């Protein structure tokens, strides 16, 4: 039986585009695999305590017999999060753009997982496993638009998931998600709907291709 790890970082449940596209992808994957278990981590609605990271980071440099109870606890928290990632055959990350940067909840989670020895420098723990990054942006950041280059999240997430953790990553992006509720963006609504429909379609197709990817990762 395959295990799918799914992380959500949207701070809302109602109307969340990343959650909706991730639902489409998750359904396609579970239908394709038949008997998959999905392990969910919702850092948007249930964030990890960011203060644990500092304690865990220094605990790693402290000899085991000299660690404080707080350090032991911080490392145990990191290990429990890392277990979820290490145990996954395929991974889904649904993370929106916030304030032109990386979701703090996703960053806090990734930082803490990275303190676990299995995810330290040069990690190969999940190397080559199929993974999907689903992201959504309220505005538009395409080449030639006034805010081209302002999305400082997707590049970092791609770098971390693909190059640092070595995942076989597909990125599914949706832009202009604020068009529906922003009067100044009214003329972009049609384009926004098309992009959203395309993202769901890509999610469906990607989900169906996961068996092939799992086979090549094995
Ligand atoms: C606090 C906050 C900050 C945001 N910052 C940006 C931003 O910098 N650029 C942008 O294009 N959209 C921004 N957005 C819009 C979100 O990226 C957009 O609504 C996206 O669809 C959120 O993902 P979700 O639909 O899964 O919740 C922001 C939204 C919130 C709530």
Mean model confidence by pLDDT: 96
* Fourth-tier CATH superfamily name: Flavodoxin domain
Instruction: Round the Cα radius of gyration to an integer and report it.
Output: 18 Å
Can you write the helix and strand succession as a string? EHEHHEHEHEHH
- Total of DSSP H or I helical runs spanning 4+ residues: 7
State the end-to-end CA separation. 14 Å
| Corresponding CATH architecture | 3-Layer(aba) Sandwich
Strand content: 5-15%
Shape: globular
CATH fold category name: Rossmann fold
What's the helical proportion of residues?
A: 40-55%
Small molecules in complex: flavin mononucleotide
Low-confidence parts lasting 5 or more residues at pLDDT below 50? none
Q: What's the number of structural domains?
A: 1
- Give the tally of β-strands: 5
Q: State the major sheet.
A: 5 strands, parallel
Output the structural class: alpha/beta
Strand order of the largest sheet: 2-1-3-4-5
CATH class category label: Alpha Beta
